[in-house]
Amino acid sequence: MRGNGQKQSRKMGLFMAALLTEGSIEGAARAAGIAVATAWRWHGTEEFQAEYRARQKEVIEHTVMRIKGAMSEALDVLRSIMIDAENPPSARVAAARSILDNGFKAIETEDILARLEVLETAMKEEQKV
Predict the structure, then answer these.
(1) What is the dihedral of CA 114, 116, 119, 124, to 10 degrees?
(2) Could you say which of 33, 55, 64, 85 has the lowest number of CB atoms within 10 Å?
(3) Among residues 10, 13, 6, which one has the least CA distance to residue 48?
(4) Are 78 and 98 in contact (CB under 8 A)?
């Protein structure tokens, strides 16, 4: 019996990995080589959902790290388009607008995070009393 459990665990891992990249449960089931009914049954369990959320979080964190790594290069590209007088005015304006919009969003996000931190600290202090 033990071997069967290991095989199921391996198949479940394959299904979970496929689910992160496929567009549907059916597609992920095909990619993992399992029956669609099995995929739906696994997908409906709390254990599966908890592990799947953890894997999704890892994927998102990895993606965010890659985005952060590319942001400096993207800004350099936008800035070079913006300052190059040889580029059409529409391209220069679009680059400038993109830089400004994202700059404002970054400032707004930092402000919200700072305010949230103050609120969380206040709530923790209140709970101690």
Answers:
(1) -100
(2) 85
(3) 13
(4) yes
Q: Residue 67 to residues 43, 56, 107, 110: CA-CA distances in angstroms?
A: 30, 16, 18, 18
Its pTM surpasses 0.70: no
| Rounded-to-integer distance, Cα 18 and Cα 41, Å | 16
CA dihedral 13, 16, 21, 24 (to 10 degrees): 140
* 75-111 pLDDT per residue, tens: 999 999 999 999 999 999 999 999 999 999 999 999 9
User: Residue 86 carries which DSSP code?
Assistant: T
Q: What separation in angstroms does the CA of 129 have from each of 116, 117, 123, 125, 126? A: 20, 19, 10, 7, 5
Give the total residue count for the chain: 129
* Tokens read off for 57: 């979080």
- 25: Cα separation from own chain's centroid: 19
Per-position b or e across 21-42, b if 16+ CB within 10 A of its CB = ebeebeebbbebebeeeebeeb
- Which residue type, as a one-letter code, is found at position 35? A
